[in-house]
Amino acid sequence: MSPPLLKLGAVLSTMAMISNWMSQTLPSLVGLNTTRITTPDTLTQISPKEGWQVYSSAQDPDGRCICTVVAPEQNLCSRDAKSRQLRQLLEKVQNMSQSIEVLNLRTQRDFQYVLKMETQMKGLKAKFRQIEDDRKTLMTKHFQELKEKMDELLPLIPVLEQYKTDAKLITQFKEEIRNLSTVLTGIQEEIGAYDYEELHQRVVNLESRLRDCMKKLTCGKLMKITGPITVKISGTRFGAWMTDPLASEKNNRVWYMDSYTNNKIVREYKSIADFVSGAESRTYNLPFKWAGTNHVVYNGSLYFNKYQSNIIIKYSFDTGRVLAQRSLEYAGFHNVYPYTWGGFSDIDLMADEIGLWAVYATNQNAGNIVISQLNQDTLEVLKSWSTGYPKRSAGESFMICGTLYVTNSHLTGAKVYYSYSTKTSTYEYTDIPFHNQYFHISMLDYNARDRALYAWNNGHQVLFNVTLFHVIKTEDDT
Protein backbone atom coordinates (compact mmCIF):
# COMPACT_ATOMS: atom_id res chain seq x y z
CA MET A 1 0.00 0.00 0.00
CA SER A 2 1.35 3.44 -0.92
CA PRO A 3 2.30 5.95 1.90
CA PRO A 4 -0.74 8.29 1.46
CA LEU A 5 -3.10 5.36 1.86
CA LEU A 6 -1.26 4.20 4.97
CA LYS A 7 -1.72 7.66 6.54
CA LEU A 8 -5.41 7.73 5.74
CA GLY A 9 -5.92 4.24 7.15
CA ALA A 10 -4.18 5.23 10.41
CA VAL A 11 -6.31 8.38 10.77
CA LEU A 12 -9.57 6.54 10.23
CA SER A 13 -8.58 3.68 12.52
CA THR A 14 -7.68 6.19 15.27
CA MET A 15 -10.98 8.02 14.84
CA ALA A 16 -12.90 4.77 15.15
CA MET A 17 -11.22 4.12 18.53
CA ILE A 18 -11.87 7.72 19.68
CA SER A 19 -15.51 7.37 18.71
CA ASN A 20 -15.85 4.20 20.72
CA TRP A 21 -14.12 5.80 23.75
CA MET A 22 -16.33 8.89 23.63
CA SER A 23 -19.56 6.95 23.38
CA GLN A 24 -18.68 4.65 26.30
CA THR A 25 -16.45 6.66 28.66
CA LEU A 26 -17.12 10.39 28.28
CA PRO A 27 -20.66 10.38 29.75
CA SER A 28 -19.46 8.77 32.99
CA LEU A 29 -16.47 11.12 33.28
CA VAL A 30 -18.54 14.27 33.11
CA GLY A 31 -21.20 12.80 35.39
CA LEU A 32 -24.05 12.63 32.87
CA ASN A 33 -25.16 9.16 33.92
CA THR A 34 -24.62 9.01 37.70
CA THR A 35 -23.98 12.45 39.22
CA ARG A 36 -26.74 13.98 41.32
CA ILE A 37 -26.44 17.58 42.53
CA THR A 38 -27.62 18.34 46.03
CA THR A 39 -29.65 21.51 46.41
CA PRO A 40 -29.02 24.08 49.16
CA ASP A 41 -32.31 23.11 50.86
CA THR A 42 -30.65 19.99 52.26
CA LEU A 43 -27.80 21.89 53.93
CA THR A 44 -27.40 22.15 57.69
CA GLN A 45 -25.42 24.57 59.80
CA ILE A 46 -23.18 23.76 62.71
CA SER A 47 -22.93 26.63 65.19
CA PRO A 48 -19.45 27.90 66.16
CA LYS A 49 -18.09 27.04 69.56
CA GLU A 50 -18.32 29.52 72.38
CA GLY A 51 -15.46 31.44 73.98
CA TRP A 52 -13.17 34.17 72.64
CA GLN A 53 -9.74 35.63 73.28
CA VAL A 54 -9.38 39.21 72.15
CA TYR A 55 -6.21 41.06 71.26
CA SER A 56 -6.51 44.80 70.67
CA SER A 57 -4.02 47.26 69.28
CA ALA A 58 -3.71 50.89 68.31
CA GLN A 59 -5.13 53.04 65.58
CA ASP A 60 -3.38 53.18 62.20
CA PRO A 61 -2.30 56.55 60.66
CA ASP A 62 -5.79 56.97 59.13
CA GLY A 63 -7.42 56.76 62.57
CA ARG A 64 -8.88 53.30 62.14
CA CYS A 65 -8.87 51.03 65.17
CA ILE A 66 -6.93 47.80 64.74
CA CYS A 67 -8.43 44.98 66.81
CA THR A 68 -7.21 41.37 66.66
CA VAL A 69 -9.57 38.59 67.76
CA VAL A 70 -8.31 35.09 68.48
CA ALA A 71 -11.47 33.06 67.95
CA PRO A 72 -12.02 29.37 68.69
CA GLU A 73 -11.84 26.83 65.96
CA GLN A 74 -14.99 26.85 63.80
CA ASN A 75 -16.78 23.68 62.67
CA LEU A 76 -17.38 23.31 58.97
CA CYS A 77 -20.86 23.42 57.53
CA SER A 78 -21.97 20.04 56.20
CA ARG A 79 -22.63 21.53 52.81
CA ASP A 80 -19.03 22.72 52.42
CA ALA A 81 -18.12 19.27 51.09
CA LYS A 82 -21.00 19.49 48.58
CA SER A 83 -19.80 22.89 47.42
CA ARG A 84 -16.29 21.52 47.03
CA GLN A 85 -17.57 18.52 45.05
CA LEU A 86 -19.58 20.87 42.86
CA ARG A 87 -16.52 22.99 42.14
CA GLN A 88 -14.46 19.89 41.35
CA LEU A 89 -17.17 18.59 39.01
CA LEU A 90 -17.40 21.95 37.26
CA GLU A 91 -13.63 22.03 36.84
CA LYS A 92 -13.69 18.49 35.42
CA VAL A 93 -16.40 19.44 32.92
CA GLN A 94 -14.46 22.55 31.91
CA ASN A 95 -11.29 20.49 31.40
CA MET A 96 -13.28 17.93 29.39
CA SER A 97 -14.75 20.73 27.28
CA GLN A 98 -11.25 21.93 26.46
CA SER A 99 -10.17 18.38 25.54
CA ILE A 100 -13.20 17.96 23.28
CA GLU A 101 -12.39 21.28 21.61
CA VAL A 102 -8.84 20.12 20.84
CA LEU A 103 -10.18 16.80 19.53
CA ASN A 104 -12.72 18.65 17.41
CA LEU A 105 -10.02 20.78 15.80
CA ARG A 106 -8.01 17.70 14.96
CA THR A 107 -11.13 15.98 13.67
CA GLN A 108 -11.98 18.86 11.37
CA ARG A 109 -8.48 18.86 9.97
CA ASP A 110 -8.56 15.11 9.29
CA PHE A 111 -12.12 15.38 8.03
CA GLN A 112 -11.03 17.81 5.35
CA TYR A 113 -8.30 15.40 4.33
CA VAL A 114 -10.79 12.53 4.07
CA LEU A 115 -13.21 14.63 2.01
CA LYS A 116 -10.38 15.37 -0.37
CA MET A 117 -9.63 11.66 -0.59
CA GLU A 118 -13.33 10.97 -1.19
CA THR A 119 -13.29 13.36 -4.15
CA GLN A 120 -10.21 11.65 -5.51
CA MET A 121 -11.86 8.25 -5.08
CA LYS A 122 -14.97 9.35 -6.97
CA GLY A 123 -12.84 10.79 -9.76
CA LEU A 124 -10.77 7.66 -9.92
CA LYS A 125 -13.91 5.53 -10.05
CA ALA A 126 -15.21 7.56 -13.00
CA LYS A 127 -11.92 7.21 -14.78
CA PHE A 128 -11.92 3.50 -14.08
CA ARG A 129 -15.33 3.14 -15.66
CA GLN A 130 -14.12 5.07 -18.68
CA ILE A 131 -11.06 2.91 -18.89
CA GLU A 132 -13.15 -0.24 -18.50
CA ASP A 133 -15.36 0.89 -21.43
CA ASP A 134 -12.32 1.45 -23.54
CA ARG A 135 -9.98 -1.15 -22.01
CA LYS A 136 -9.32 -2.70 -25.34
CA THR A 137 -7.36 0.42 -26.35
CA LEU A 138 -5.12 0.32 -23.22
CA MET A 139 -2.28 -1.88 -22.39
CA THR A 140 -3.08 -4.74 -20.01
CA LYS A 141 -0.40 -3.66 -17.51
CA HIS A 142 -1.79 -0.16 -16.97
CA PHE A 143 -5.31 -1.50 -16.61
CA GLN A 144 -4.20 -3.95 -13.92
CA GLU A 145 -2.46 -1.19 -11.85
CA LEU A 146 -5.56 0.97 -11.88
CA LYS A 147 -7.73 -1.92 -10.88
CA GLU A 148 -5.48 -2.74 -7.89
CA LYS A 149 -5.61 0.85 -6.66
CA MET A 150 -9.37 0.80 -6.90
CA ASP A 151 -9.56 -2.42 -4.96
CA GLU A 152 -7.45 -0.84 -2.19
CA LEU A 153 -9.69 2.19 -1.91
CA LEU A 154 -13.05 0.41 -1.94
CA PRO A 155 -12.82 -0.83 1.74
CA LEU A 156 -12.35 2.77 2.91
CA ILE A 157 -15.81 3.83 1.80
CA PRO A 158 -17.70 2.35 4.82
CA VAL A 159 -14.97 3.70 7.16
CA LEU A 160 -15.57 7.15 5.73
CA GLU A 161 -19.27 6.85 6.52
CA GLN A 162 -18.41 5.86 10.12
CA TYR A 163 -16.05 8.83 10.33
CA LYS A 164 -18.89 11.16 9.35
CA THR A 165 -21.02 9.61 12.11
CA ASP A 166 -18.22 10.12 14.68
CA ALA A 167 -17.88 13.76 13.68
CA LYS A 168 -21.59 14.25 14.36
CA LEU A 169 -21.19 12.50 17.73
CA ILE A 170 -18.41 14.93 18.74
CA THR A 171 -20.68 17.85 17.90
CA GLN A 172 -23.41 16.35 20.08
CA PHE A 173 -20.98 15.89 22.99
CA LYS A 174 -19.87 19.51 22.67
CA GLU A 175 -23.45 20.67 22.95
CA GLU A 176 -24.16 18.43 25.96
CA ILE A 177 -21.05 19.64 27.78
CA ARG A 178 -22.00 23.26 27.07
CA ASN A 179 -25.47 22.66 28.53
CA LEU A 180 -24.04 20.86 31.57
CA SER A 181 -21.58 23.68 32.24
CA THR A 182 -24.41 26.18 32.14
CA VAL A 183 -26.44 24.14 34.65
CA LEU A 184 -23.49 23.67 37.02
CA THR A 185 -22.59 27.36 36.85
CA GLY A 186 -26.17 28.26 37.73
CA ILE A 187 -26.16 25.91 40.71
CA GLN A 188 -22.83 27.32 41.87
CA GLU A 189 -24.17 30.87 41.67
CA GLU A 190 -27.22 29.89 43.70
CA ILE A 191 -25.15 28.23 46.38
CA GLY A 192 -22.71 31.14 46.34
CA ALA A 193 -25.52 33.60 47.00
CA TYR A 194 -26.80 31.39 49.77
CA ASP A 195 -23.32 31.28 51.31
CA TYR A 196 -23.05 35.07 51.21
CA GLU A 197 -26.32 35.59 53.05
CA GLU A 198 -25.32 33.13 55.72
CA LEU A 199 -21.83 34.64 55.98
CA HIS A 200 -23.31 38.10 56.34
CA GLN A 201 -25.53 36.91 59.17
CA ARG A 202 -22.53 35.32 60.87
CA VAL A 203 -20.61 38.59 60.63
CA VAL A 204 -23.55 40.49 62.16
CA ASN A 205 -23.73 37.96 64.99
CA LEU A 206 -19.98 38.15 65.52
CA GLU A 207 -20.03 41.94 65.71
CA SER A 208 -22.77 41.75 68.31
CA ARG A 209 -20.81 39.24 70.35
CA LEU A 210 -17.66 41.33 70.10
CA ARG A 211 -19.46 44.41 71.36
CA ASP A 212 -20.68 42.42 74.34
CA CYS A 213 -17.22 40.99 74.76
CA MET A 214 -15.52 44.39 74.77
CA LYS A 215 -17.77 45.43 77.64
CA LYS A 216 -16.41 42.54 79.68
CA LEU A 217 -12.71 43.12 78.98
CA THR A 218 -10.42 43.38 81.94
CA CYS A 219 -7.20 45.36 81.68
CA GLY A 220 -4.77 43.98 79.14
CA LYS A 221 -1.25 42.65 79.40
CA LEU A 222 1.38 43.83 76.93
CA MET A 223 2.25 41.10 74.43
CA LYS A 224 3.84 42.86 71.47
CA ILE A 225 5.04 46.23 70.16
CA THR A 226 5.08 46.95 66.43
CA GLY A 227 6.12 49.92 64.34
CA PRO A 228 7.13 52.62 64.58
CA ILE A 229 5.02 54.87 62.38
CA THR A 230 6.85 58.14 61.80
CA VAL A 231 4.34 60.98 62.15
CA LYS A 232 6.65 63.97 61.85
CA ILE A 233 10.28 65.12 62.02
CA SER A 234 10.66 68.32 64.04
CA GLY A 235 12.28 69.96 67.02
CA THR A 236 15.48 69.13 68.85
CA ARG A 237 16.80 65.73 69.84
CA PHE A 238 14.64 65.75 72.99
CA GLY A 239 10.99 66.58 73.55
CA ALA A 240 7.45 65.34 74.11
CA TRP A 241 4.18 65.21 72.19
CA MET A 242 0.84 63.78 73.30
CA THR A 243 -2.94 63.65 73.08
CA ASP A 244 -5.52 63.45 75.86
CA PRO A 245 -6.61 59.82 76.57
CA LEU A 246 -9.84 61.07 78.19
CA ALA A 247 -10.83 63.36 75.30
CA SER A 248 -13.91 62.55 73.25
CA GLU A 249 -13.62 60.80 69.90
CA LYS A 250 -14.09 64.12 68.09
CA ASN A 251 -11.39 65.84 70.13
CA ASN A 252 -8.01 64.92 68.65
CA ARG A 253 -5.91 67.84 69.82
CA VAL A 254 -2.13 67.37 69.90
CA TRP A 255 0.26 69.12 72.30
CA TYR A 256 3.92 69.63 71.51
CA MET A 257 6.71 70.49 74.00
CA ASP A 258 10.21 70.78 72.53
CA SER A 259 13.39 70.29 74.61
CA TYR A 260 13.76 69.02 78.18
CA THR A 261 14.53 72.31 79.95
CA ASN A 262 14.64 76.10 79.67
CA ASN A 263 11.28 76.23 77.90
CA LYS A 264 7.71 77.22 78.82
CA ILE A 265 6.00 77.18 75.40
CA VAL A 266 3.37 74.50 74.66
CA ARG A 267 2.02 74.36 71.09
CA GLU A 268 -1.44 73.00 70.36
CA TYR A 269 -2.80 71.51 67.12
CA LYS A 270 -6.43 70.59 66.43
CA SER A 271 -5.57 67.20 64.93
CA ILE A 272 -2.76 64.90 63.88
CA ALA A 273 -3.17 66.18 60.33
CA ASP A 274 -2.69 69.78 61.49
CA PHE A 275 0.29 68.68 63.55
CA VAL A 276 1.89 67.08 60.51
CA SER A 277 1.23 70.13 58.33
CA GLY A 278 2.33 72.56 61.05
CA ALA A 279 -1.06 74.29 61.30
CA GLU A 280 -0.74 75.46 64.90
CA SER A 281 -4.04 76.46 66.55
CA ARG A 282 -2.88 77.89 69.87
CA THR A 283 0.20 78.57 72.00
CA TYR A 284 0.39 78.39 75.81
CA ASN A 285 3.03 80.19 77.88
CA LEU A 286 3.36 78.22 81.10
CA PRO A 287 4.07 80.06 84.38
CA PHE A 288 7.05 77.75 85.08
CA LYS A 289 9.72 76.02 83.04
CA TRP A 290 9.44 72.27 82.89
CA ALA A 291 12.06 69.61 83.64
CA GLY A 292 12.51 66.51 81.48
CA THR A 293 10.18 65.24 78.77
CA ASN A 294 7.85 63.10 80.86
CA HIS A 295 4.73 65.27 80.89
CA VAL A 296 1.17 64.07 80.36
CA VAL A 297 -2.12 65.63 79.28
CA TYR A 298 -5.02 64.10 81.19
CA ASN A 299 -8.67 65.20 81.21
CA GLY A 300 -7.94 68.61 79.73
CA SER A 301 -4.99 69.49 81.96
CA LEU A 302 -1.23 69.33 81.58
CA TYR A 303 0.79 67.67 84.36
CA PHE A 304 4.52 68.42 84.43
CA ASN A 305 7.53 68.55 86.73
CA LYS A 306 8.56 72.08 87.67
CA TYR A 307 12.18 72.79 86.75
CA GLN A 308 14.80 72.19 89.51
CA SER A 309 12.26 70.78 91.96
CA ASN A 310 10.22 67.69 92.77
CA ILE A 311 7.01 69.73 92.49
CA ILE A 312 4.25 68.54 90.18
CA ILE A 313 2.14 71.16 88.42
CA LYS A 314 -1.41 70.78 87.12
CA TYR A 315 -2.15 73.37 84.43
CA SER A 316 -5.57 73.85 82.80
CA PHE A 317 -5.61 74.50 79.06
CA ASP A 318 -9.15 75.87 79.27
CA THR A 319 -8.48 78.53 81.92
CA GLY A 320 -4.75 79.02 81.38
CA ARG A 321 -4.20 78.72 85.13
CA VAL A 322 -2.40 76.41 87.55
CA LEU A 323 -5.06 74.33 89.25
CA ALA A 324 -2.81 72.45 91.70
CA GLN A 325 0.81 71.88 92.65
CA ARG A 326 2.36 69.49 95.14
CA SER A 327 5.81 68.30 96.14
CA LEU A 328 6.45 64.61 95.52
CA GLU A 329 7.94 63.61 98.83
CA TYR A 330 11.51 62.22 98.78
CA ALA A 331 11.55 62.13 94.98
CA GLY A 332 14.97 62.79 93.45
CA PHE A 333 15.18 65.59 90.87
CA HIS A 334 17.58 67.55 88.63
CA ASN A 335 19.47 64.49 87.31
CA VAL A 336 19.77 62.71 90.65
CA TYR A 337 17.78 59.67 89.45
CA PRO A 338 17.11 60.20 85.73
CA TYR A 339 16.66 57.60 83.01
CA THR A 340 19.84 56.47 81.26
CA TRP A 341 19.72 59.35 78.77
CA GLY A 342 19.67 62.03 81.48
CA GLY A 343 17.80 65.22 80.60
CA PHE A 344 16.32 65.85 84.08
CA SER A 345 14.04 62.85 83.53
CA ASP A 346 13.86 62.07 87.27
CA ILE A 347 10.06 62.29 87.56
CA ASP A 348 7.95 60.58 84.89
CA LEU A 349 4.23 61.45 84.87
CA MET A 350 1.92 59.11 82.97
CA ALA A 351 -1.69 57.93 82.68
CA ASP A 352 -3.37 54.65 81.78
CA GLU A 353 -6.80 52.99 82.04
CA ILE A 354 -6.71 53.24 85.84
CA GLY A 355 -5.63 56.85 86.33
CA LEU A 356 -2.70 59.21 86.89
CA TRP A 357 0.75 57.97 87.95
CA ALA A 358 4.19 59.25 88.92
CA VAL A 359 7.32 57.12 88.45
CA TYR A 360 10.49 58.27 90.23
CA ALA A 361 13.21 57.15 92.65
CA THR A 362 14.08 57.97 96.26
CA ASN A 363 17.06 57.61 98.56
CA GLN A 364 14.82 55.59 100.89
CA ASN A 365 14.38 53.02 98.10
CA ALA A 366 18.08 53.03 97.28
CA GLY A 367 17.55 54.77 93.96
CA ASN A 368 15.15 52.10 92.75
CA ILE A 369 11.89 52.93 91.01
CA VAL A 370 8.88 53.99 93.07
CA ILE A 371 5.38 53.97 91.54
CA SER A 372 2.76 56.30 93.00
CA GLN A 373 -0.88 56.64 92.04
CA LEU A 374 -2.01 60.29 92.17
CA ASN A 375 -5.29 62.03 92.73
CA GLN A 376 -5.80 63.91 89.47
CA ASP A 377 -7.40 66.90 91.21
CA THR A 378 -5.20 67.42 94.27
CA LEU A 379 -2.04 65.53 93.17
CA GLU A 380 -2.10 63.72 96.49
CA VAL A 381 -0.35 60.33 96.53
CA LEU A 382 -3.03 57.69 96.94
CA LYS A 383 -0.72 54.68 97.18
CA SER A 384 2.91 53.82 96.41
CA TRP A 385 4.82 50.68 95.39
CA SER A 386 8.58 50.26 95.81
CA THR A 387 10.28 48.16 93.14
CA GLY A 388 13.78 46.72 92.97
CA TYR A 389 14.66 48.14 89.55
CA PRO A 390 17.31 50.93 89.53
CA LYS A 391 15.90 54.09 87.98
CA ARG A 392 19.24 55.01 86.39
CA SER A 393 19.32 51.64 84.56
CA ALA A 394 15.98 52.21 82.89
CA GLY A 395 15.83 53.57 79.35
CA GLU A 396 12.19 54.67 79.61
CA SER A 397 8.97 53.35 81.14
CA PHE A 398 5.20 53.49 80.70
CA MET A 399 2.05 52.26 82.45
CA ILE A 400 -0.64 50.00 80.95
CA CYS A 401 -3.53 48.83 83.12
CA GLY A 402 -1.69 49.42 86.38
CA THR A 403 1.47 47.62 85.28
CA LEU A 404 4.75 49.48 84.80
CA TYR A 405 6.80 48.38 81.78
CA VAL A 406 10.49 49.34 81.79
CA THR A 407 12.84 49.34 78.80
CA ASN A 408 16.43 48.25 79.26
CA SER A 409 17.86 51.05 77.12
CA HIS A 410 17.06 54.22 75.21
CA LEU A 411 19.42 53.25 72.39
CA THR A 412 19.58 50.58 69.67
CA GLY A 413 18.46 47.12 70.73
CA ALA A 414 15.99 48.39 73.29
CA LYS A 415 13.27 46.10 74.57
CA VAL A 416 10.75 45.94 77.39
CA TYR A 417 12.85 44.14 79.94
CA TYR A 418 10.97 44.41 83.24
CA SER A 419 7.38 44.82 84.42
CA TYR A 420 5.82 45.48 87.81
CA SER A 421 2.13 44.89 88.56
CA THR A 422 0.57 47.21 91.12
CA LYS A 423 -2.41 44.86 91.32
CA THR A 424 -0.36 41.93 92.64
CA SER A 425 2.74 43.85 93.85
CA THR A 426 4.91 41.44 91.87
CA TYR A 427 7.45 41.83 89.09
CA GLU A 428 8.78 39.76 86.22
CA TYR A 429 11.51 40.01 83.62
CA THR A 430 10.15 40.19 80.10
CA ASP A 431 11.53 40.13 76.58
CA ILE A 432 9.38 42.30 74.29
CA PRO A 433 11.56 43.86 71.58
CA PHE A 434 10.64 46.95 69.59
CA HIS A 435 12.34 48.81 66.75
CA ASN A 436 14.26 51.87 67.96
CA GLN A 437 14.46 53.23 64.42
CA TYR A 438 16.21 56.52 65.13
CA PHE A 439 18.49 55.24 67.90
CA HIS A 440 17.65 57.59 70.80
CA ILE A 441 14.35 57.64 72.67
CA SER A 442 13.80 60.47 75.15
CA MET A 443 10.04 60.06 75.68
CA LEU A 444 7.81 56.97 75.63
CA ASP A 445 4.22 57.13 76.94
CA TYR A 446 1.12 54.97 76.55
CA ASN A 447 -2.21 56.46 75.46
CA ALA A 448 -5.15 54.33 76.61
CA ARG A 449 -7.63 55.82 74.13
CA ASP A 450 -5.41 55.25 71.09
CA ARG A 451 -3.91 52.02 72.43
CA ALA A 452 -0.52 53.26 71.24
CA LEU A 453 2.86 54.37 72.52
CA TYR A 454 3.80 57.98 71.76
CA ALA A 455 7.55 58.43 71.41
CA TRP A 456 10.10 61.17 70.73
CA ASN A 457 12.88 59.38 68.86
CA ASN A 458 15.86 61.61 68.11
CA GLY A 459 13.79 64.49 66.73
CA HIS A 460 11.18 62.17 65.19
CA GLN A 461 7.64 62.00 66.56
CA VAL A 462 6.58 58.36 66.17
CA LEU A 463 3.83 55.95 67.21
CA PHE A 464 4.16 52.32 68.23
CA ASN A 465 1.22 49.93 68.03
CA VAL A 466 0.74 47.67 71.02
CA THR A 467 -0.94 44.29 71.23
CA LEU A 468 -2.60 43.57 74.54
CA PHE A 469 -3.91 40.29 75.84
CA HIS A 470 -7.28 40.70 77.55
CA VAL A 471 -9.06 38.25 79.79
CA ILE A 472 -12.84 38.24 79.41
CA LYS A 473 -14.79 38.52 82.63
CA THR A 474 -17.25 35.75 83.39
CA GLU A 475 -20.32 35.82 85.56
CA ASP A 476 -18.31 33.98 88.24
CA ASP A 477 -15.75 36.83 88.49
CA THR A 478 -16.22 39.19 91.39
Automatic annotation (TrEMBL):
<dbReference type="Pfam" id="PF12308">
    <property type="entry name" value="Noelin-1"/>
</dbReference>
<feature type="domain" description="Olfactomedin-like">
    <location>
        <begin position="218"/>
        <end position="470"/>
    </location>
</feature>
<protein>
    <submittedName>
        <fullName>NOE3 protein</fullName>
    </submittedName>
</protein>
<keyword id="KW-0175">Coiled coil</keyword>
<dbReference type="InterPro" id="IPR011044">
    <property type="entry name" value="Quino_amine_DH_bsu"/>
</dbReference>
<keyword id="KW-1015">Disulfide bond</keyword>
<feature type="disulfide bond">
    <location>
        <begin position="219"/>
        <end position="401"/>
    </location>
</feature>
<keyword id="KW-0732">Signal</keyword>
<dbReference type="GO" id="GO:0005615">
    <property type="term" value="C:extracellular space"/>
</dbReference>
<dbReference type="InterPro" id="IPR003112">
    <property type="entry name" value="Olfac-like_dom"/>
</dbReference>
<feature type="coiled-coil region">
    <location>
        <begin position="79"/>
        <end position="141"/>
    </location>
</feature>
<keyword id="KW-0770">Synapse</keyword>
<feature type="coiled-coil region">
    <location>
        <begin position="170"/>
        <end position="216"/>
    </location>
</feature>
<dbReference type="Pfam" id="PF02191">
    <property type="entry name" value="OLF"/>
</dbReference>
<dbReference type="GO" id="GO:0007165">
    <property type="term" value="P:signal transduction"/>
</dbReference>
<keyword id="KW-0964">Secreted</keyword>
<dbReference type="InterPro" id="IPR022082">
    <property type="entry name" value="Noelin_dom"/>
</dbReference>
<dbReference type="InterPro" id="IPR050605">
    <property type="entry name" value="Olfactomedin-like_domain"/>
</dbReference>
<dbReference type="GO" id="GO:0045202">
    <property type="term" value="C:synapse"/>
</dbReference>
<keyword id="KW-0325">Glycoprotein</keyword>
